[in-house]
């Protein structure tokens, strides 16, 4: 059971942000934001936080399928039964909502409340979700520990002659047996396929000698996890050895640089400078990392474009990579938690 005191604290912080933006209400509909604010995982619902001269109120709109569940799980929040979330009539003149809301739904909200003006409130919701509660941190730690355990067990089950699809299936089955399934589609890349950083597993067989890159994460207690590890080739070419050692150094130096107060783009630069100095700058095309929580990709986004400041309690990946098309690819990914003075690495498996 998620700690309700932590959820109420996050709701209070949301109300403060609503006031700071001088909004009359905010509609929250993304499953991850709803989970972060209420602790409830609902198939279709919209949370409305509104304020007026008399104070504030919190309601949740859903259809008949989920009404009884929300009555039971959210006894302190007014549950409003609607046939469809498009029927909601937002309160107030200035209404915040997420950019992820389908445009058709927003048009219907505007029709239901023609005096309302809708503004993007995504950044504020993402910021609230980025700093994890103690309960969320505990669950994320457990999910990453399980992912590392599954990786070690899967490695022992891999055999020469297996295809990428067969290797991915081993991981998927273990995640269903030990957790709640995959947090995302497992990536298995044999040999040169690892140069495709989001390669879709296919019938490429593993001969037992080529390198293998695996990107995986289990879902556990409602949260995601993320880990990338490599099986090294039996015979390391000079190029592979250089690439792997460069990515490993980058991973370790970036982890050392994590601390409260550093910006995402400054942390990304620590990693990017190392890879650029080694001569592979053009082969590192993605960002250094991303937040992990109820979703596998959420705030903070550790990229060269983000000025977001890291705070204690944020959980995100450190995943530098080098990809040489048609030849090889290496990525090493760990999940880290920002602490008072640095970070805790949640990924315990050897790299």
Following the backbone from N to C, one meets helices and strands in this order, namely HEHEEHEEHEHHHEEEHHEEEEEEE
Mind telling me the C-alpha Rg? 22 Å
Low-confidence stretches: none
Strand content: 15-25%
Number of strands: 16
Q: Tell me about the biggest sheet?
A: 6 strands, mixed
Structural class given helices, strands, pairing? alpha+beta
Name the strands of the widest sheet in spatial order: 4-3-2-1-5-6
Overall, the morphology is elongated
For the record, give the distance between the C-alpha atoms at the N and C termini, rounded to a whole number. 34 Å
Overall mean pLDDT stands at: 96
Helix count equals: 9
Estimate percent helicity: 25-40%
Please tell me about this protein's structure.
Strands 4-3-2-1-5-6 form a six-stranded mixed beta sheet. The chain has a three-stranded antiparallel beta sheet with strand order 7-8-9, with helices on one face. The two termini are 34 Å apart. With 351 residues, the chain is of the alpha+beta class. 44% of the residues are buried. Helix content is 36%, strand content 21%. Helix 6 (134-157) crosses helix 7 (164-178) and helix 8 runs antiparallel to helix 9 (264-277). It contains nine helices and 16 strands. The longest helix has 24 residues, at 134-157.
Task: Provide keyphrases for this structure.
alpha+beta, six-stranded mixed sheet, three-stranded antiparallel sheet, 351 residues
Summarize the topology:
Layout: H1 4-20, E1 25-28, H2 31-38, E2 45-52, E3 55-62, H3 64-73, E4 78-81, E5 94-97, H4 103-112, E6 117-120, H5 122-130, H6 134-157, H7 164-178, E7 187-190, E8 212-216, E9 227-231, H8 238-257, H9 264-277, E10 289-291, E11 298-302, E12 315-318, E13 321-324, E14 328-331, E15 334-338, E16 343-345
Parallel strand pairs: 1-5, 3-4, 5-6
Antiparallel strand pairs: 1-2, 2-3, 7-8, 8-9, 10-11, 12-15, 13-14, 15-16
Helix pairs in contact: 2-5, 6-7, 8-9
